[in-house]
């Protein structure tokens, strides 16, 4: 059974700190790994990773994939209160090209 | 403005009643999905549809039903057979070519059954 495990489940930091969120996966036929940010309601897409070792970057957020060790990390530098959210990791499953299996998420709280 | 709309935002029902959640998209996406999210849990797939008039069960389909009569619409019915219907329900859509794994989400419906 395909699965995604995220750690930690929750994290509290102060503004300006750097955080690293972890996502490990087990999937029969790996194609990609996706990161989403969920603030209050709808998750919004952050990154899609398909190749090992290539960092994707967007402002203070970056992510990298290790296909040998089956994990990805999401880094946020110089955190702001607006980064407070649940960060979700997902991988497409074997059953269909558009089906995603999600981890439980990491709840990040950034205090001023 | 293109996007996905879900209605209502909040829904309250008595146990034993069926309830239908609406999901509409004007992104011209072929594929649509329904997820359920419980506190401290990730998203779990209920049903998905890759094309009009066709849909497949996800991981937790029992107690739910869907229809896909139009490309833009994918309503979800929570039936009285669903044992724990109180949850946050998210609808999503994606294109079938290009980047099919990037799913766009609606704002969600929070259902409370008492």
**Low-confidence region ranges of chain A:** none
Write the H/E string of chain B, N to C.
Answer: EEEEEEEEEEE
Q: How many DSSP helices of chain A?
A: 0
- Percent helix of chain B: under 10%
Count interface residues per chain for the largest interface. Answer: A-B, 25 and 27 residues
Main sheet of chain B, how many strands, which sense, barrel?
A: 7 strands, mixed
User: What would you report as the Rg of chain A, rounded to the nearest angstrom?
Assistant: 14 Å
Overall shape of chain A: globular
Give the integer mean of the pLDDT values of chain A: 92
Distance between the termini of chain A: 41 Å
Derived from helix and strand composition plus strand pairing, the structural class of chain A reads mainly beta
Number of strands of chain A: 11
| Series of H and E elements of chain A | EEEEEEEEEEE
- The quaternary structure here is heterodimer
Counted by DSSP, the helix tally of chain B is 0
What amount of the residues of chain B lies in strands? over 45%
Overall morphology of chain B: globular
Cα separation of the termini of chain B: 36 Å
Mean pLDDT of chain B: 91
DSSP E strands of chain B, number: 11
Task: Characterise the protein shown here.
The complex is a heterodimer of chains A (112) and B (114). Chain A is mainly beta. In chain A, 0% of the residues lie in helices and 56% in strands. Chain A has no helices and 11 strands. Chain A has strands spanning 3-7, 10-14, 19-26, 33-38, 43-49, 56-58, 61-66, 71-76, 85-92, 100-102, 106-111. In chain A, the strands form 2 sheets. In chain A, strands 2, 4, 5, 9, 10 and 11 form a 6-stranded mixed beta sheet that branches. Chain A has a 5-stranded antiparallel beta sheet with strand order 1-3-8-7-6, with no helix packed on it. With 114 residues, chain B is mostly beta strands. Chain B is built from no helices and 11 strands. In chain B, the strands form 2 sheets. In chain B, strands 2, 4, 5, 6, 9, 10 and 11 form a 7-stranded mixed beta sheet that branches. Chain B has a 4-stranded antiparallel beta sheet with strand order 1-3-8-7, with no helix packed on it. In chain B, strand 4 (31-37) and strand 5 (43-51) form a beta hairpin. The termini of chain B are far apart. The interface between A and B is medium-sized, with 25 and 27 residues.
